[in-house]
Amino acid sequence: MRVTFRVNGRRQEADDVWEGESLLYVLRERLGLPGSKNACEQGECGSCTVRLDGVPVCACLVAAGQVEGRDVVTVEGLADYAKQRSAGGGCATAACGTSGPGTSLDAARQWESRPTDSATGEGTATSPRATLSPIQQAFIDAGAVQCGFCTPGLLVAADEMLERNPNPSDADIREALSGNLCRCTGYEKILDAVRLAAARQSEGV
Amino acid sequence: MDFLRPAGWEEALAAKAAHPTAVPIAGGTDVMVEINFDHRRPEYLLDLNRIGELGEWEVGEDTVRLGASVPYTRIMEHLRAEMPGLALASHTVASPQIRNRGGVGGNLGTASPAGDAHPALLAAGAEVEVQSVRGSRLIPIDAFYTGVKRNALAPDELIRAIHIKKADGPQQYSKVGTRNAMVIAVCAFGLALHPETRTVRTGIGSAAPTPIRAKAAEEFLNAALDEGGFWDNGKIITPSVAKHFAVLCAAACNPIDDVRGTASYRRHAVGVMARRTLTWTWESYRGTARTTEGAA
User: Fold this and answer.
1) What is the ipTM of this complex?
2) Is residue A91 included in any domain, yes or no?
3) DSSP percent split of chain B into helix, strand, coil, nearest 5
4) A103-112, pLDDT tens digit by residue?
5) Best interface-test mutation with B: which of A25, A37, A58 has the largest number of B CBs within 10 A?
6) Positive or negative CA dihedral for A182, A186, A188, A193?
7) Strand blocks (E) in B166-294
8) N or C: which end of chain B has fewer CB within 10 A?
9) Which residue of B has its CA nearest to A50?
10) What's the structural domain count of chain A?
């Protein structure tokens, strides 16, 4: 079957989708978005966390056919999503944005897979190169990335929590990330990163 | 495999009537695991995500009519006052990601003895509203679970909503697991005080082939509370009464040894949870009684 939906603000079509296929498989294997990781395939590890109509879910447990006509944000779109949210001062989903979400064609053509300089923080506003979202930058600055496999899911989950709850307590952070496993057990640094992002957010940095 | 995508409830019922083997999928948190692991290859998947009313609820005078697909997250956020036991149970479900998708309808459809919602539904008192093209019926929650992962649904029926009695007193829920998140219950216990009828109801999860009530324990406690005038005098429940209640709750179990725990551990833990939840709810009931008196 064919599934048409929006991913990171762009309309996407996937063809020959098997009826029992998961959203995660469609993202990774059909749309070339391998940021969401495939580990447990049973909702246990959270490494495939994406936002479905704004809500964090495990992409491995969403049937592909269920996303028809809906809006998905993956870790690949997190920087854009965060940028739009701070510009729009609220909802960053494509449904309520009128400014045309996603990456412009020009920007897409100029994109290079070069990491942003972590020393200088996110790239300059004029740079067409994809910059990092505040939560991504905080993960780098706090040393919260080890093997990196759990990172995409944690970023999506943490970003959503900070959107909902700008001043989270440690208990709030632990609860929001309780569905994401890190087998390097780097949880302390991950908590540091989320605290850092929250602090920067409240200071308007 | 065929993916059926009804746009409305009537269409969904028609699809289920035409294809009784179709597996309904809402949050997908049970169904997709089985498909991902190749444990199940249903002929048809019946997607219920596009049926908006399944995600809605109505708070009536005596009951809450909870749409089958209302996610646990919504129950925790919006229905804590009306259904404190179910809200507590919802909070023990898996993780935020899963609670954003899963709902009570799926828990009932799967009818696993370990489903987190069941003890809370049994304790509160509930009826399951099921529908087919033939019509609609309400199944009392006590008659809903018919075996391990079996329920009273006919092949052409779908769960539309759950009618849950609004709390008229304190309710508690307790669950044993190896950690706080992402854990299937080793065993679980729900308890609800019903001061209006002066009764106590219980629900036990993961300690018998189906979720069950500890009926003998309920009868004993109801009689003991009545005899001692506890509902009126608001006294602390006598430790010997609480202890015997716990023993009877443990005796109601019919558990097995499995990877999550032994039968004897489950029996023991159910007794401990019974005593604790009784103490918590009763303390809360006494507190309420005192506040009311003070205010009057």
Assistant:
1) 0.94
2) no
3) 40, 25, 35
4) 666 666 665 6
5) A58
6) negative
7) 171-176, 187-194, 199-205
8) C
9) B97
10) 2
